[in-house]
C-alpha cells in the first residue's frame, strides 16, 4: 500500500469495527476526497456515515464536537492544512477543553485528518505546516506519520483515543518515499519496507518514536517527509547518524530522544515548517534542559524559511539535502 491506501484501509477497518465512527468533510463522500483517501467508503457504509459538508471548516469541527458529546467518534477531514485556521476556535476552545470543562463527563474523541506540507508546488495556500500551533494547545494530540505502515497503525490508535487528535498527512509522500531531490523519481512504496501494510486491524501507540537508523556520531530528529530526506542524505554522506522519526509530536517520546542524544552528543533537528517558534525550538529547549552536559556541539535546526511558502521557489524553501548536509558537517566538525 502507499500512504493513501493505508489511510483508507485504516478508516475502513475502524468503520467496520465501530458503528459510531463517521467520516465527514469537503468532497470526502461521493468523490472520495481530493487525494482519494476516503474512496469507496460512502458506497460501503452509506451517506449517514460518510458524508460531504459545506465549505466551512469552522462548521465541520463544530459539528464534530457536538457529535462527540452524543457518543460518536467523528473523523473530520480538513481538505488542506492551510484551511484549518477558521476551525481553530472550535479545536482550541471546545474540543481541547471539553474533558476539563465537564470534569470528565464529556470527551471529544475526534481525529482531524489533514494533508499538510509542500512538495507538490501548491504555493502558499496549499503547502503550510502548522503543526507547532497545535502542540501548544493542552488537550490536543498531534500525530505525523512518515510511511504507510505507521500511517495506518497511528490513525487507528488516534481514532480509538478518547481525546482529540490532529493527524497531519505529508502529501509529498502520499504516493511514495522521497529523498529530497526533485530531479529523481519517487521510489514506489512497493520497494520500501514500510509498504508491507496488513489489511487487518493493528495499532501503533501514540507517543512512541521510531529509531529509523541507529548511529553513534549524531542524532537527527525529524518527522513526516523529512524522514526520507534524512535517510537519503545520510546514505549519500556515509555518516554514522542515528535517525529518529518522532511520529507523534504530542505526546512526545522524550525518553528515546534523550537516550540518543546522550549517546551521540550532537543533534540536528529537521522540519519543513518555518524556523521561528517551530517545533524544532521546543526540541532544542528540551534537549538543552535534559542533555546539556552531554552535548559536544550546538544544536542545529534545518527548517523552512520565515516567509510565506513560495510557488516558483519551492525547492529553495524546502529543507533539502544541501542544507541538511551543511548542518551535519557543521555539528560534526565542532
Strand content: 15-25%
Please bin the fraction of helical residues. 25-40%
Number of helices in the DSSP assignment: 12
Largest sheet: 5 strands, mixed
What is the N-to-C order of secondary-structure elements (H for helix, E for strand)?
HEHEHEHHEHEHEEEHEEHEHEHH
Mean pLDDT across all amino acids: 93
In the CATH classification, which architecture of the largest domain applies? 3-Layer(aba) Sandwich
**What would the CATH topology of the largest domain be?**
Rossmann fold
Q: Largest beta sheet: what is the strand line-up?
A: 7-9-8-11-12
Shape: globular
Amino-to-carboxy terminus distance: 42 Å
Find the structural class using helix and strand composition. Answer: alpha/beta
- The low-pLDDT segments are none
Radius of gyration: 19 Å
Number of distinct beta strands = 12
At the fourth CATH level, what is the homologous superfamily of the largest domain? Thiamin diphosphate (ThDP)-binding fold, Pyr/PP domains
CATH class group of the largest domain: Alpha Beta
**Integer tally of domains:** 2
Outline the structure in words.
By secondary structure, the protein is an alpha/beta fold. It has two domains: 3-195, Thiamin diphosphate (ThDP)-binding fold, Pyr/PP domains (Rossmann fold), CATH 3.40.50; 210-333, Rossmann fold (3-Layer(aba) Sandwich). It is built from twelve helices and twelve strands. The chain has helices spanning 3-17, 41-45, 57-69, 88-95, 98-101, 131-135, 148-160, 225-237, 254-264, 279-291, 314-317, 321-333, and strands at residues 21-25, 50-52, 73-77, 111-116, 141-143, 165-170, 210-213, 218-222, 241-245, 248-250, 267-274, 300-304. The protein has a five-stranded mixed sheet, sandwiched between helices. Strands 4-6-5-10 form a four-stranded mixed sheet. It has a three-stranded parallel sheet with strand order 2-1-3, with helices on both faces. β11, α10 (279-291) and β12 form a beta-alpha-beta unit. α1 packs parallel to α7 (148-160), α3 packs parallel to α4 (88-95) and α9 (254-264) packs across α10 (279-291). The model has no long low-confidence stretch (mean pLDDT 93).
Amino acid at each position: 500500500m502507499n500512504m493513501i491506501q493505508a489511510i483508507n484501509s485504516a478508516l475502513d477497518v475502524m468503520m467496520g469495527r465501530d458503528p459510531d465512527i463517521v467520516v465527514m468533510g469537503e468532497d470526502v463522500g461521493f468523490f472520495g476526497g481530493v487525494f482519494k483517501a476516503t474512496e469507496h467508503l460512502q458506497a460501503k457504509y452509506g451517506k449517514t456515515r460518510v458524508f460531504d459538508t459545506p465549505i466551512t471548516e469552522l462548521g465541520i469541527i463544530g459539528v464534530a464536537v457536538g457529535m462527540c458529546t452524543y457518543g460518536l467518534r467523528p473523523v473530520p477531514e480538513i481538505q488542506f492544512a492551510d484551511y484549518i485556521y477558521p476551525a481553530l476556535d472550535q479545536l482550541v476552545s471546545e474540543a481541547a477543553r471539553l474533558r476539563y470543562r465537564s470534569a470528565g463527563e464529556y470527551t471529544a474523541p475526534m481525529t482531524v485528518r489533514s494533508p499538510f506540507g509542500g512538495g507538490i508546488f501548491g504555493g502558499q495556500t496549499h503547502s503550510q505546516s502548522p503543526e507547532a500551533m497545535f502542540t501548544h494547545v493542552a488537550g490536543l494530540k498531534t500525530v505525523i506519520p512518515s510511511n504507510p505502515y505507521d500511517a495506518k497503525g497511528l490513525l487507528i490508535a488516534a481514532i480509538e483515543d478518547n481525546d482529540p487528535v490532529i493527524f497531519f498527512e505529508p502529501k509529498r509522500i502520499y504516493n511514495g518515499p522521497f529523498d529530497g531531490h526533485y530531479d529523481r523519481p519517487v521510489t514506489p512504496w512497493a520497494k520500501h519496507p514500510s509498504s508491507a501494510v496488513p489489511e487487518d486491524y493493528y495499532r501503533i501507540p501514540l507517543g512512541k518514536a521510531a529509531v529509523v537508523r541507529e548511529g553513534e556520531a549524531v542524532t537527527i530528529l525529524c518527522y513526516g517527509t523529512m524522514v526520507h530526506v534524512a535517510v537519503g542524505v545520510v546514505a549519500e554522506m556515509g555518516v554514522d547518524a542515528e535517525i529518529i522519526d518522532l511520529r507523534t509530536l504530542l505526546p512526545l517520546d522524550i525518553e528515546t530522544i534523550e537516550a540518543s542524544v546522550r549517546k551521540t552528543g550532537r543533534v540536528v533537528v529537521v522540519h519543513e515548517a518555518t524556523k521561528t517558534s517551530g517545533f524544532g525550538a521546543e526540541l532544542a529547549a528540551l534537549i538543552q534542559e535534559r542533555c546539556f552536559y552531554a552535548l559536544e556541539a550546538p544544536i542545529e535546526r534545518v527548517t523552512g524559511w520565515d516567509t510565506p511558502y513560495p510557488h516558483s521557489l519551492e525547492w529553495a524553501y524546502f529543507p533539502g539535502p544541501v542544507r541538511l548536509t551543511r548542518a551535519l558537517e557543521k555539528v560534526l566538525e565542532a
